[in-house]
Amino acid sequence: MADLKIAGAPKRSLLASVRENLTDGPGFLWLMMTPPLLLLALVVGLPVAKAVMLSFDRVVLTRPKLAGDFTFHNYIRLFTDIDAWLAVLRSCLYMSGTVFGSIVLGLAAALLTRRIVRFRGLWRSIFILPWTMPAIVAAMVWGVMYDSNFGILNQLLRMLPFVDANVEWLLNKSIVLPALIVVQVWNEFPVAYIFFLAALHAIPEELYEAASVDGASPFQQFLFVTLPQIKYVLAVIVVLLLIFGFRAFPVIYLLTGGRTETLTVATFNAAFRAYDFSYAATLGVLAMFVSLALVLIYLHLTLRRGKADAAS
Amino acid sequence: MARILHMAALVALAIVVAFPVYWMIVMAMTPLGFSRQITTIIPTNLTFDNFASLVVERPMLRWLWNSTLVATLASGISLVIGLSCGYALSRLNFRGSYIVLVLVLASQMIPSTSILVPLYALFKDLGLLNTIQGVVIGHISLVLPLAIWMSKGFFDSLPEELEGAARLDGCSRLGALWFVAMPLVTPGLAAIFVYGFVTSWNDFLFPRHFVQSENLWTAAAGLTSFRGEYFTLFEPQMAASIIFALPVVVLFFFLQRRMVSGSLTGGVK
Questions:
Q1: Predicted model pTM
Q2: Which residues make Cβ contacts (< 8 Å) with residue A101, sequence separation at least 6?
Q3: Any idea what the CATH number is for the domain that residue A227 is in?
């Protein structure tokens, strides 16, 4: 290849120089970036632009005459819409609940399996298994278990001495959100588990030996040795799970039929129940801003620490 | 004593975590209509009839085929096109690369409902509703950012010196990518493809709402229709869930090590 370049240098044709520019010169960046960015603009940029346009319009399928004018109607409505803000609140509760639950469960599983030697692969597989389940399958399985008359959970509950009434897991308004959170936690805690397990394995064993020589109890060891060492991973998981929780849709929608509105479900309902695409787009734009903020936090965390830590 | 407590806690946690999967299998193999009468955790009479009836009474095979087609196309296109962007983000320190990084990750993290609504409106204008192409395009919007982000991660984990050496020997940049970096990331590419495939396979939102005719549904869309219709018939729901989840679970465990490291660098499910 080197020979080619030297031989071609004196009397280079235009085509050859363009080719060299693209494969080896400053044009290489363009060659690499143009097709993916074009496709990204098409499949993501275009819908986002359309969402913004819709949000300044009034496209309501049941009332076609409203469409066509530039208006702030949807944004004004958004700021005064109690239901929308309740949905945002529910999203926040859902996010905090799933993050807390997944971290507790993931950390517990990781701490319990970290020094296990026997059947190591088996334990790991069991704790990763829920993550391999598609969210819609998780929703279906738990839907069957939550069934108020015939579900296994109520059957087990009824065996307890002082319980006789069935719990309406998905219909009772004060239980439904925790019930949904349980499903989401079951489905996604393995992410936290995998991160924690990797982080725990990276802690040098000498630290624990030193701590136990100094007479630290297991709990103190956890508090003063383990926790500081996994602080960074913990932060990354929190943000990651916040994003998952915020995006969550299948579990909530399939188990409640859309009755419990988080921001994502409210977006869906506005479009496919009320047929108000403009208002739905407005809610969607709000959701985009929230996820953008979360992404910036995530990048800020991970890029600063560099590649090595993220991959450990 | 501490050891016994430790083991007990581990076994208890594992049972709780694994129980829903176990129960799904039990329900799927219970004769139709009998799941309500189950009073024990350990089942006695099991059958495969529910699986057979999925194929006979519903277009399950057709849906699975559609899923395979859509997922292969969406993931394949995303991988082929997205790869070079991942490489550029990893190797070429250009101005604005941070912005591209934010854009890519943000596109990946946008809730799919936020995309569904404008995409539906666009497809309505373009006549892409009720077509497989529409679903593929929708899924590319989910998978492409993932492919870019994950391939960046895999290129990041390759030492840059290898391509540097090739370039010293007179290889062009494209040549260094093609002949040196690509063969080394091939296993990673398989993981990215599987990841994209699974993402598309698992999504029910786009196929269910872009497509009206049941014949063009993917398995995910078909599966979610069960919950509406057979709200109380557990057995077919669970049998269909197993058939739907099985390929994904097998793929995950097959590629477990890489999937895990890939998901860490990609930071996504």
A1: 0.89
A2: A181, A182, A184, A185, A189
A3: 1.10.3720.10
Locus of tokens 């624990």: A208
B55 inside 8 A of chain A by CB: no
Give residue B34's pLDDT: 74
Question: What is d(CA A32, CA A26) in angstroms, rounded to the nearest whole number?
Answer: 11
Closest-CA residue of A relative to B2 is A218
Nearest residue, CB atoms, A249 vs list B14, B113, B232: B113
Contacts of B172 in chain A (CB under 8 A): 1, 20, 23-24
Domain range for A32 is 1-46
Q: How far apart are CA B133 and CA A73, in angstroms?
A: 34
| Chain B residues closer than 8 Å to A140 by CB | 24, 223, 226-227, 237-238, 241
Closest-CA residue of A relative to B156 is A307
- pLDDT of res. B96: 86
**Dist. CA A125–CA B37, nearest whole Å:** 31
Domains and CATH numbers, chain B: 1-47 (no CATH), 58-266 (1.10.3720.10)
Taking contacts as CB-CB distances below 8 angstroms, the residues of chain B near A130 are 17, 20-21
CA atoms within a 13 Å half-sphere pointing along the CA-CB vector of B92: 24
Mark yes or no for CB contact B269/A191 under 8 Å. Answer: yes
Tens of pLDDT, residue by residue over A207-232, are 999 998 999 998 899 999 999 999 99
